[in-house]
Amino acid sequence: MLPEVTHDLSRSWRLMLGHELSFDTNRTIGNLDDVGFFTLSIGGNAWGEHAAVLLVAQTDLIQAAAVMFDIDQAAVEADDIDDVGRELCNVLGSCCTKLFGNEMHGFGIGLPQTLSHSELTELFARGTLLCQFVATNLAGSPTIRVIKIH
Prior knowledge:
This protein has about 150 residues and is α+β, with helices and mostly antiparallel strands. Helices cover about 35% and strands about 25% of the residues. Helix 1 runs antiparallel to helix 3 and helix 2 (about 60-70) packs across helix 3 (about 80-95).
């Protein structure tokens, strides 16, 4: 399943932003300073039984917003960054549902949400990391973490 998910993540990134991005499941997460955090619940309760969490450097979010909205990077505003982060989380998080195979039958996928650093820490404390996908060829190393919520 992991190679299929990494392929789908790379393909989705390319379709949305026009350039190739490779993901690796064995790479560690970089520095979390100046990073945007977004989550997509997968399952039942408030956070879902599982969650896909996207971590992206602000510089990468600004570049992505400029591409997606066809504007100059200097014109990107906070709402644009939030919108693009949620959209990336929605699309990339949805790619991760293949990890669950038949378990996904009857599950719902929530709306993407922006997280504060404290909310991210709380979410990680409440769950177990199932896998992570870390970009290998972009300075900010966008990361998607899939966790099981307890």
